Amino acid sequence: MFDIQEIRSQFSILDQKVNGKPLVYLDNAATSQKPDSVLKTWDQYYKEINANVHRGIHTLSQLATEEMELSRRKIQKFINAKHDFEVIFTKGTTEGLNLISYILTQKLKKDDEIIISYLEHHSNIVPWQLLCERTGAKLRVIPIDENGILQLDIFDTFLSEKTKVVSVNHVSNALGIVNPVEEIIARTRKNTDAYIVIDGAQSAPHFTIDVQEMDCDFYVFSGHKMYAPMGTGILYGKQHILEELPPFHGGGEMIATCSFDGTTYAPLPFKYEAGTPNVGGNIALGAAVDFILKVGQENIQRHENALLEYAQRKLLELDGIKIYGEKANRTGVVSFNLEGVGIASDVGMILDKLGIAVRTGHHCTQPIMDFFNIAGTVRASFAVYNEFHEIDLLVEGVQKAQRMLS
Ligand code: PMP
Questions:
Q1: Confidence (pTM)
Q2: Which domain holds residue 397?
Q3: Cα-based distances in Å from 292 to 75, 248, 299, 366, 378
Q4: ipTM entry
Q5: How many domains does the chain have?
Q6: Nearest-CA residue for atom 4 of ligand 1
Q7: For 218-269, how does the pLDDT look when each residue is reduced to its tens digit (9 = 90+)?
Q8: In this structure, is residue 22 part of a structural domain?
Q9: Are 204 and 127 part of one and the same domain?
Q10: First to last CA, the chain
Q11: How far does residue 31's CA lie from ligand 1's centre (Å)?
Q12: Under a CB-based contact definition with an 8 Å cutoff, are residues 367 and 352 in contact?
């Protein structure tokens, strides 16, 4: 049973007025709201457990460790990793991608190639540019067509023995396009020995993820976009790869032995978890997974797709709306502009006065904006608690913006 009012009742933040109007929160691709169960888990950790993990033998420390490891196992199941130690807690997608690009440094040399796509978030561009600077490797970019679809025939021509990394997002945060990662992975495996990295920041909140079936080497995502606290995230990596590659941060927790003559490293996952982790956040991420599974991933996807379809249809009924990206193959995001009137941020400000929260600007994807020759878009993005009448309010707000700005 999918009961939207019951779901909304778990998000008290939604029940407020912004600028005198009921809040319509449509900025979920930036960050989602957190259900009571997640907030309670976080609160309870600090009120009842707060202790450092993996260290003390005292009761609270053991409890904190057990809870965090339980959360790790929940996430393991959530993405169907083979082992719980392949699940590394991070601060988020950005940290995960920086970690991977850093630990691959020794694997690349001058003129090797790293393939990304035109649809990447800056956090899946800049870490690879830094890796190129460190190693002399070159970045190659899979082009898109005017619908934002990746040009896989050109991708095929990029693949060679020089290809060392292929890193693409599963879902574009700017356009909502779902990329054919299975196809990209299969073609990469067939033609190269490259490491395959999937940025799952916009797919983990919306889809059932099976990293074994997907057969990527790394899959990274952020907790805060999937109902968990900010400052949480996951890096999944295949066991043999994480075992072979060097650590990222050095410090406490990640060592087996440490002396001035040298250090040996702790086994996975701790080798990649230096320092005191975000214990409360990591435990709350497990509660967010529980929330998603309880609502049901199929229910979430069905509801969000229906919202998206409705939003696209209603917006296109207006004159002068340009929606970016292929309409058929999208999830959770509609990115648009009002043709000939104002700039995206003007529209965003008018919507905000009406209590409607959307994102405007380049969405950390400047190359996509350059491709479409625009400064930015208005982006409405959906989560499980959004309602159809909120889309009606968005569309009314857009009409008002059209009148005010023309
Ligand atoms: N990749 C994608 C596709 C994203 O949408 C985002 C967040 N907007 C990121 C990476 C970066 O995530 P975070 O800021 O949580 O590290």
A1: 0.98
A2: 296-405
A3: 11, 31, 10, 31, 27
A4: 0.99
A5: 2
A6: 201
A7: 999 999 999 999 999 999 999 999 999 999 999 999 999 999 999 999 999 9
A8: no
A9: yes
A10: 45
A11: 9
A12: no
